[in-house]
Specification:
single chain; eight-stranded mixed beta sheet; globular
Length: about 350
C-alpha cells in the first residue's frame, strides 16, 4: 500500500473513532500496514481531529525505528507484534473505550460474547497486566496472541486491542466489542449505567463553581453526577485505580468527603477529583477539557469497580505502580504544556 494512502486511512479511522466515542482526546492508537516491513501509526499525544498525513509516523516492523522527528505512539511495539504474527492483518486499533475498559478490570480469564457479535469470533482473551507503554506489556500481549487466534483482546486494567484485514473490518470489531461488553456488564450488575448521564447542570454545581471562583482558585471544576459515580459516592469509600488512565490522570486514590466546599478546595489543591458523599464527585482541570477528561475517567473507573465487584474479586492496580504512572504523566504533561506555550 502507498504510504500516503495508509496515513490517510489512519486519520480517517481516528476521526471515526472519536465521533463514535470509542476514542477520546489522545487516548489509544491506530495503525495501518504499508508493506511487510513498515506500518503507519498515530503519533504520541496528538489530537486525532487535528492530524495531517505529515503527523502520521512510519515505523519499521522489525526494529521499531521510525522516520522523522515526530514520536510514534508508545504502544508501537504491540502494533508491530500484530503485523509480525499475522501476515494477513493490515489494520490495528487500540482504544480505552468505556465498556471494554471496564470489563478489562474484571476477574475473568476470557470473555465469550454471544452469537449476536460474529465479528468477535466467540472468544475475547485477556492479556496480562503490565505498565502502559512498557516492554512487559508488549510481551504479555504478544504471548496472548501466540496462545489464542482471536482478532480482539483485552489488555487487563487498560483497554482493548482489535485488528483486521482492513480499516472497516477492524472498526466494526471494536464497535461490536464495545456493545458486547455493555451487554455483559448489564448481566453482571443491572444497576450499572451503560450510557453516560445526560442530566442538566445542577444548581449545586453552580454553587460550587461560585465558591471556587470566589476563593481565587486557578483552573476549572465540574460536578460529576453520573449514576455510577453517585452510587459510589453514597458508599463513601476511598476510590482507587482499577484502570491505568485513572492512575495517570487522577492519581493513586481520591477521598470521599462530606458536603464541605472548604474541604473540597483543600482536596483539589493536590489531586484532580474528590468524591462528595451522596452528591457525586467534583473534577478539576487546568482547562475545561482537562476537567471533562477527569469526569469521564472517573465515571469509567466507577463502572469498572461495579463490574469487577460483580464478576468476583476486585483487583486494584498496585499503589507503587499507580504512583509511577501518575508521576510520569505529570512530567510528560508539564513538558507538553511548555511546548504549547
Amino acid at each position: 500500500m502507498d504510504s500516503l494512502i495508509a496515513k490517510n486511512q489512519v486519520i480517517e479511522a481516528g476521526h471515526r473513532l472519536v465521533h463514535s466515542g470509542l476514542i477520546a482526546r489522545t487516548w489509544g492508537n491506530v495503525s495501518c500496514r504499508i508493506n511487510n516491513h513498515q506500518f503507519a501509526i498515530t503519533p504520541s499525544g496528538r489530537d486525532y481531529m487535528s492530524l495531517t498525513p505529515d503527523d502520521i509516523v512510519v515505523v519499521q516492523i522489525d526494529t521499531l525505528l521510525h522516520e522523522g522527528h515526530i514520536k510514534p505512539s508508545s504502544e508501537k511495539g504491540i502494533h508491530a507484534a500484530v503485523y509480525q504474527l499475522h501476515p494477513n492483518i493490515n489494520f490495528v486499533i487500540h482504544t480505552h473505550q468505556e465498556n471494554g475498559s471496564a470489563l478489562s478490570a474484571c476477574d475473568l480469564d476470557s470473555f465469550h460474547p454471544s452469537d449476536s457479535y460474529p465479528e468477535l469470533g466467540g472468544l475475547v482473551p485477556y492479556a496480562k497486566y503490565a505498565l502502559p507503554g512498557s516492554k512487559a506489556l508488549c510481551a504479555n500481549v504478544t504471548a496472548a496472541m501466540k496462545q489464542y487466534s482471536s482478532l480482539a483482546f483485552f489488555l487487563r486494567h487498560h483497554g482493548i486491542l482489535c485488528f483486521g484485514h482492513d480499516y472497516n473490518d477492524t472498526f466494526q470489531r471494536a464497535d461490536a466489542l464495545e456493545r458486547a461488553c455493555g451487554d455483559q456488564i448489564q448481566k453482571l450488575d443491572p444497576l450499572i449505567q451503560i450510557a453516560p448521564s445526560t442530566s442538566d447542570v445542577s444548581k449545586k454545581e453552580d454553587h460550587l463553581k461560585a465558591f471556587w471562583e470566589s476563593s481565587n482558585q486557578p483552573g476549572v471544576i465540574l460536578l460529576n453526577q453520573d449514576p455510577d459515580v453517585l452510587r459510589y459516592s453514597n458508599e463513601c469509600f476511598r476510590l482507587k485505580p482499577l484502570l491505568d488512565d485513572f492512575a495517570q490522570i487522577i492519581g493513586v486514590s481520591i477521598r470521599c468527603i462530606s458536603d464541605s466546599p472548604a474541604q473540597m478546595i483543600q482536596e483539589l489543591q493536590h489531586q484532580s477529583a474528590v468524591l462528595i458523599k451522596g452528591l457525586g464527585a467534583v473534577c478539576y482541570g487546568i482547562h475545561k477539557e482537562d476537567a471533562e477528561a477527569v469526569r469521564m475517567i472517573l465515571r469509567k473507573n466507577c463502572k469498572a469497580y461495579y463490574a469487577a465487584k460483580a464478576s468476583g474479586k476486585i483487583h486494584y492496580i498496585p499503589v507503587w505502580e499507580s504512583f509511577l504512572m501518575r508521576q510520569f504523566y505529570l512530567k510528560k504533561y508539564s513538558q507538553m504544556a511548555k511546548k504549547n506555550k
